[in-house]
Structures are given as C-alpha cells and as structure tokens.
Amino acid sequence: MTGRPGGTPARAPGTASPRAIGVLALQGDFEAHARALAAVGVPAVEVRTAGQLLSAAGLVLPGGESTTLWKLMEGTGIAEAIAEVVRRGDPVLATCAGAILLSRRILNPERPGLGLLDVTAVRNAYGRQLDSTVVRLTDLDRTALGSDPLEAVFIRAPRLEAPGPGVEVLARRDGDPVLVRQGNVLAATFHPELGEDSRVTRLFVAAGRR
Ligand code: GLN
After folding, report:
1. How far is it, in rounded angstroms, from Cα 184 to Cα 21?
2. Among 46, 74, 80, 191, which one carries the catalytic annotation?
3. Which DSSP symbol is given to 12?
4. Is the distance from CB of 154 to CB of 126 less than 8 angstroms?
5. 84 an active-site residue?
6. Are the C-beta atoms of 23 and 61 separated by less than 8 Å?
7. What is the number of helices (H) and of strands (E) in the chain?
8. 206 vs 59: CA distance, rounded Å
9. Every domain of the chain and the residues it spans
10. Most-buried pick from 34, 156, 199, 207 (CB within 10 A)?
11. What is the pLDDT of residues 3-51, one digit of tens each?
C-alpha cells in the first residue's frame, strides 16, 4: 500500500488469511465446519499448529473423539494457543468433542478439561444404542436464535452439567443445556455444521463482528 511506512507485510505462504476463521483440523468433522462457514460467506482455513491457530480471526473446535484430540494435542502448544484465543476475545465455536475439551471438568472418564468453559461435560451421556439422533429443539433463547424450532444433530453427544454463573444457556434438550455461551465462547453438544439451519454458525460469526 502506498504511503504506508514499511509497506504491507508479506504473508508467508500457507499462513491464515487475516480474516479467515481457523478450523482445528487434527481430527473429526472439520471439513463440514469449513463448508458451513463458506455457506454464510465467511472464509475458513484449516489450522493444525499453534502458530496457525493464533493467526486466524477466530476458531472452530469441531466434533470428533475427544480422547484422540487430547493425544494429538499433546506437546504441540495447541492447548495454550486455544486459551490465548479465548483470552484475547476472538470468537470461538466448539461443538461436541470441541466443547468437551473446553470444559472445566470432564466425566466418563474423569479428567480435567481446559477450563475455558465453566461446565461439567459428561461424555457419551445419551446412551450408545442410538449413536446419532436428530432432535427438534424448541426451548431456545429467542433473542439469540429466534423462535423457530432448531433441528439439531446429536452424535454420541456429551451432557453439559453445572453451568457456572457466567454461562448463558441458549438452547436446551429435555432441560439439559445443549447450546451455551460464555463471553466469546459458543459451545454446542450437537453439530450445527450438519444440516440446513445456519443460525448457530451465524451467531458465532456475528460475535466476531461486535
Ligand atoms: N463422543 C465423543 C467424545 O466423547 C464426542 C462425539 C462428537 O464429537 N460427535 O469425544
């Protein structure tokens, strides 16, 4: 750019475009998230290292298998980078296994989470006989989501329990929180990236524009 001291810094090949949302692409359904973001006109970039994650404009932690994710993250600095993204206020969307990672406490089996979302996550809490189920959610926060029922895909979902005072519950299934927000972190136990309804993806994207 002319007249700017030092000019525009060159971007190293392979790094995130400054406006793209990073989708953690270690494992799980990260491609579906990238498509869901593209569908609402937001560029996404797959991130696999702490550095890539920190250079994105926001972060999606997709569903998958949280025990595998912990193993893949070990010694990479990714956990610390996620904490930094949350701390600096960038929008974060965590779904299913992603929400488990962020939790304060995890059960089944018990272990600490990253402590970035003040909830207890009980893994695989809805039984194994039905691995995947679509639920029409009607208990919704109308300001955030409007009043139309939200079709939610649950895949071996965790149950969120004991939300702390800083946690807003935006949707419930049979009384259980299934979509929660704590500051810049939005977490769903279902998969908003699957299916037609883009309300949760748009809520996440809008948080980045505030
Ligand atoms: N059951 C998985 C876990 O405990 C989460 C499932 C999902 O992300 N769809 O990590």
Report:
1. 14
2. 191
3. P
4. yes
5. no
6. no
7. 7, 14
8. 13
9. 21-207
10. 34
11. 344 444 444 555 544 489 999 999 999 999 999 999 999 999 999 999 9
